[in-house]
Structures are given as C-alpha cells and as structure tokens.
C-alpha cells in the first residue's frame, strides 16, 4: 500500500522522469499531473470528448479505440501549471476486463460517458461504475457523469431527469453536452476544467492521506447540471 | 539458390531507396515475379517457396499476386464456392450493432480517392463477411479491430475470396484474439517484454520502470497493424509476412519496432504516459523491409518456446497451471511456417557476425549460449534440463547451424 501511495505521488508530481530506479534524469519540474480516465460504452463519444478538450475541436473522423489512447493538455489554474492527462479507453466490453485494468492505476478522477441518444449506453453505466469500483483502491476519487450528443435533440432517448436521478444516487455531478456542437466550444472545456479545479482544491488531501483513512471528498451538493448547447 | 540472393538483398534493403540502384531493383523485382509464378505453377504448388517470397524483400509485390498466393499460404481452395448464409444475419446476430458501429467508423481504411458510393458498398460487404464468419463459427467472438483485418482482405481479394481466407485465418492465426475473453491476447502481449529484454536489456528495464504496460501494442497485434498504418501498401506488405509465418510473428514485429525506436524511448520521461504516448504513435516511415528481416531473425534466435516461460512469468500471479500449459501448446503448435524462417536463417549464418551487433547487445546473446549448451547436452542430464524448453527446436535447428 505504501508503494502504491508513493507511485501516486510520483505520477502527480513528476513531469520529467524522476521515477525512482532511473537515476540520472532531470529533476522534476513540479508541474502537477491529473490523470483522468474516460470510460463508457462503444460509440458514446469518449474519443471525441477527449479530443475536443485536448485539441480544441471536434475530430474529422474517429475510429474505434482499440485498447487505450492517451491525450494531454497543459492548463493553468490559479497561476499553477497543471497537466491534464486523459486516458481514452475502448468501449467494447471484452477490452475492459483484462486490458484496461492497468490504466486505472493512480487515476485521480473518472469520467463516465453515455450517449444521450442511446438508452442502452445509459443502462450500461451501473456495470461501468461497478467495474471502476473494483479497480480503484480509493473510494474518494472524484467521478463525473457526462451525457454526450445533446445536440441531436430529436433523437434524445435519455431524459435529463432520469439521468439526474441516477447521478444523484451515485453522488456524481451530471453534465449534458456535445463534443460536436460547433456553437459552443467551451462547454466540454468547462467540464474538464471544473474537474481539474476540484482535483486541485482537493489534491493535498488525496496525497497526504492513505486511501483507507476515511477522508471522503464531498460530492457537489448541487451538481452543475445544464445543457449549454 | 534464390533464397540466398534474397537474403543478401535484405541486408542492404536500407539502401534501396537510392536512385542509382533502381535498375537493380527492377531486375530483382522481375526475377521475383517469375519465381513466384514458377512456384505457383509447379505441381503441387511449391508453398514453401511462396512463403519465402512472402517473407523476403518486397513481399508479394502486387495485389494481383496476392490474390493467387494468399489462398496458398492459408491452404484455401479457391475453386470451392464461398460460404453463404440464407439467414438474415443482421437481424439475428448479437454482434451486429458493434460491427456496424466499427465498420461505419472505418473510413480511413479505404483508399482516399474512392467514391463514397463504392466505399459504402464495400462497407456493407465488410459487415456481411464478418457476420457470416461469426455465424458459421460460434466459438469465435468479435473484437474491435477484427474489422481492420477483414477490410484488408476485402480490398485485396474481393468479397468472395475474403470470406474464405478470413474464415481460415480466424480459426488459426487470429484464434486467440477471438476467445470469449482477451486473456489469451493479453498473454501473447506478454511475449513483448521478454523479446525486448533478450535484445536490449537497458531498454527493457527503462520500460519496466516506466510501467508502460503493453497495451500500446494491442492494436498492432490484433489488427496486424492494419489499424495504425495509414499507407495500405505497408499494411499488405506486413500481411504477406504474417501470413507466411507463425501466429506469434506480429508480436516479434512489434518488439522490433520498439527496439528500432530505442533512442526515442530512452529520451522520453520515464513514466507510463510519456512512453505509452510515444510508442502508440507509430511512425509512418518505418524501414519495413529491414524490420521484417530483423523480426524473422529474432524469431529464430528467441523462438516462442524459449520465451514461453518468461512470458508466463510476466503475470505469474494471475495465471493458472492450465493456461500456462496452453501457452506452451500455443508456442509449439503450428510451427510449420517457421521452417521457412529457419531455412532462411541457415543462409544467414555466414553473415551472422555482421547482424549480431545490430541485433543483440552483449549480455544477451542467448543464441550462442543455447548452441553451446546444445553441444553439452550429451554430457549430462543437468544440461538437458536447462535446455529442455528449447529442445523441440534444438535438434534440427542446431544441426543446421553447426553441421
């Protein structure tokens, strides 16, 4: 457990290869890294969301993600430079079990994504949440729920109140958004930045307390639920 | 004979780009086409020669040749009518939705200039082929990335033949990826680090410290690089190679790519994100012929049977005796294609000294150690125990190397 904590510190504080066991590298630049894993069914838009945040636009075309993709963006929060790493995972169920596991290591936050135009993807959420519980040591890791594709108004299958109820039950804030909607470039950005702010403010707690020490991050009492499309 | 000259080419392949050798290139190409046709026309078909052609520099050269040779490599009879199904598979198949999603999103796999209508027609065929194979082989399970393999066959040989070829491939080379779970796939990925360790321990240790894992190579392995290479010519060249080789060859090729990028990796921050990011972005200008030749050499030097134990140890804790046994089975099964590589390697022995420097770092010349042990086998049972895992390979292999 101690080593788990140590590597978590490392992942958070080293940006230039100061991992133990590999001496002779540059000293860490001390810019913090927030590692966020994005999970959910196939085709809900995980790749598009992460791409939108990291590249600032909707990708021309995306393909099925096989395994785990990685995207990164540096942001500044309250004058501090922070790297946000998004780990974009394959949606097909068979990849979850044996493949993605490794990448849950040291994650600081989890983003669950469903497709608002696809009820099945919403119904899969409990199994994703369960999956996540099994992989994460700490129970106090911030989690958010994102309903994607809200621009496809006529095709919406998952009503907001249903999603909100679900989010409340699981103590997560809910965001409904669209990675694609060109009229609102900032919403996806705002979601990840909200998460980053939350991580930044709670970070010292997460780092200084062992996971089983009972420090629980209070979820937002009134989650920021809005569709800004 | 031909074998030897082709090997010579392989060693100088990096210089082939030079315009001065263009004439030389054309002459060799012509010669190779003739040899392939000769092998195709001989009775019975000289499959061993075709395997050599598929592996050696340039592979099978054209799609026209591939249409004739790929069925031979897979032992598929082209005169038999292709499998068909009378049922409405799109209604019945549990995989239809996933297949549809993946195929719809696979635009990048089609030639850039292709008219939409034609592409859409091919995408429909792609769905049909996949569903048909799954229906005929209920033991096979669809995985994301399977469509990347099928589309390659569809584009080269057309729907009719693609169905037969992919069906055969799915029950052989791809079989492990199509289990109900990906445990076997994961285990095949476990061969990656031991191969790297044998050749370049420093690189191996760096990657271990970074805890990079092996998922960066997952899509390489299960799509035979079809998912990550944008130039279709490179994809089919690799398919020539893999079709002619042992099912584990793609993991050797993956290792060779990592080894080729040694400096970039070592220059990276030693953490999971940086190394994963670097390695998962595959360079599009890799020296494919050199790497193919190197992968073949590594396969012969460090055959799966020798690596099986190290691979199993990669995740010892999770593994049961039964599955480990299966790995050994896997490692020793279907090795006929390797004879070609071994024969090919025989010609290389003379030049072994030259390639050795490139291939292996001092600590790890297991190849030589193994051979020396082989000579000692007769002296005692202890030595025998040491080389036991390599024994199935050893007799012929060593005779060839040390006549």
Automatic annotation (TrEMBL), chain A:
Belongs to the small GTPase superfamily. Rab family. It catalyses: GTP + H2O = GDP + phosphate + H(+). Keywords: GTP-binding, Hydrolase, Lipoprotein, Membrane, Methylation, Nucleotide-binding, Prenylation. The keyword GTP-binding applies. This is small monomeric GTPase. GO terms for biological process: intra-Golgi vesicle-mediated transport; negative regulation of constitutive secretory pathway; protein localization to Golgi apparatus; protein localization to phagophore assembly site; Rab protein signal transduction; regulation of Golgi organization; regulation of retrograde vesicle-mediated transport, Golgi to ER; skeletal system morphogenesis. It holds the Pfam family Ras. The gene is RAB33B. It is a lipid-anchor. One of its GO terms (cellular component) is Golgi lumen. Its EC number is 3.6.5.2.
UniProtKB/TrEMBL annotation, chain B:
One of its GO terms (biological process) is Golgi organization. Residues 1-24 are annotated as: Disordered. PROSITE patterns: TBC_RABGAP. GO terms for cellular component: endoplasmic reticulum membrane; Golgi membrane; nuclear membrane. It is a multi-pass membrane protein. Gene3D superfamilies: 1.10.8.1310, Ypt/Rab-GAP domain of gyp1p, domain 3. GO terms for molecular function: GTPase activator activity; small GTPase binding. Residues 60-246 form the Rab-GAP TBC domain. The keyword Metal-binding does not apply. This is TBC1 domain family member 20. It comes from Microcebus murinus (Gray mouse lemur). The lineage of its organism: Eukaryota, Metazoa, Chordata, Craniata, Vertebrata.
């Amino acid at each position: 457990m101690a080593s788990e904590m140590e590597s978590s510190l490392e992942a958070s504080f080293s940006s230039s290869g100061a991992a133990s066991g590999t001496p002779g590298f540059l000293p860490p630049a001390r810019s913090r890294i927030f590692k966020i894993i994005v999970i959910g069914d196939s085709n809900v838009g995980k790749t598009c969301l992460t791409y939108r945040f990291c590249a600032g636009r909707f990708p021309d075309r995306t393909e099925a993600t096989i395994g785990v993709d990685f995207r990164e963006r540096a942001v500044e929060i309250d004058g501090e430079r922070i790297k946000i790493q998004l780990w974009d995972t394959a949606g097909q169920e068979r990849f979850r079990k044996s493949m993605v596991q490794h990448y849950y290591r040291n994650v600081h936050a989890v983003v669950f994504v469903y497709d608002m135009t696809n009820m099945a993807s919403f119904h899969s959420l409990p199994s994703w949440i369960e999956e996540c519980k099994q992989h994460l040591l700490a129970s106090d890791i911030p989690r958010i729920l994102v309903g994607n594709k809200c621009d496809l108004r006529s095709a919406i299958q998952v009503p907001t109140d249903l999603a909100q109820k679900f989010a409340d039950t699981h103590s997560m804030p809910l965001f409904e958004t669209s990675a694609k909607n060109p009229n609102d470039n900032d919403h996806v950005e705002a979601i990840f930045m909200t998460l980053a702010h939350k991580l930044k403010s709670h970070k010292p707690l997460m780092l200084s307390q062992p996971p089983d020490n009972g420090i629980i991050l209070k979820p937002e009492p009134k989650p920021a639920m809005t569709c800004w499309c | 004979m031909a074998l030897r000259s082709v090997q010579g080419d392989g060693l100088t392949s990096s210089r082939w780009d030079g315009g001065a050798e263009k004439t030389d290139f054309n002459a060799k190409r012509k010669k190779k086409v003739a040899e392939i046709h000769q092998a195709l026309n001989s009775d019975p078909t000289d499959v061993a020669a075709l395997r050599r052609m598929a592996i050696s520099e340039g592979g099978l050269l054209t799609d026209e040749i591939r249409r004739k040779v790929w069925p031979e490599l897979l032992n598929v009879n082209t005169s038999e009518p292709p499998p068909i199904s009378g049922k409405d598979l799109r209604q019945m198949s549990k995989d239809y939705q996933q297949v549809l999603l993946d195929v719809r999103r696979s635009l990048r796999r089609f030639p850039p200039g292709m008219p939409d209508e034609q592409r859409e027609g091919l995408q429909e065929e792609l769905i049909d082929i996949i569903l048909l194979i799954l229906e005929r082989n209920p033991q096979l399970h669809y995985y994301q990335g399977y469509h990347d393999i099928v589309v390659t066959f569809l584009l080269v040989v057309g729907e009719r033949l693609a169905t037969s070829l992919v069906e055969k491939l799915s029950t052989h080379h791809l079989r492990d990826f199509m289990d109900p779970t990906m445990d076997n796939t994961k285990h095949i990925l476990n061969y990656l680090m031991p191969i790297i360790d044998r050749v370049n321990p420093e690189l191996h240790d760096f990657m271990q410290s970074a805890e990079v894992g092996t998922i960066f190579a997952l899509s390489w392995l299960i799509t035979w690089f079809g998912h990550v290479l944008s130039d279709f010519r490179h994809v089919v060249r690799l398919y020539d190679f893999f079709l002619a080789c042992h099912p584990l060859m793609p993991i050797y090729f993956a290792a060779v790519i990592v080894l080729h990028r040694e400096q970039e990796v070592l220059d990276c921050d030693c953490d999971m994100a940086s190394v994963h990011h670097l390695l998962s972005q595959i360079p599009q200008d890799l020296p494919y012929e050199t790497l193919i030749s190197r992968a073949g050499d590594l396969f012969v030097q460090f055959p799966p049977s020798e690596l099986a134990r190290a691979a199993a140890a990669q995740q010892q804790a999770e593994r049961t005796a039964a599955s480990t046994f299966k790995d050994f089975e896997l490692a020793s099964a279907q090795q006929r294609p390797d004879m070609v590589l071994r024969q090919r390697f025989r010609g290389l022995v003379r030049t072994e000294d030259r390639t050795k420097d490139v291939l292996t770092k001092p600590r790890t010349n297991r190849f030589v150690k193994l051979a020396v042990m082989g000579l000692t086998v007769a002296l005692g049972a202890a030595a025998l125990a040491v080389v036991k895992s390599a024994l199935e390979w050893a007799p012929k292999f060593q005779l060839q190397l040390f006549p």
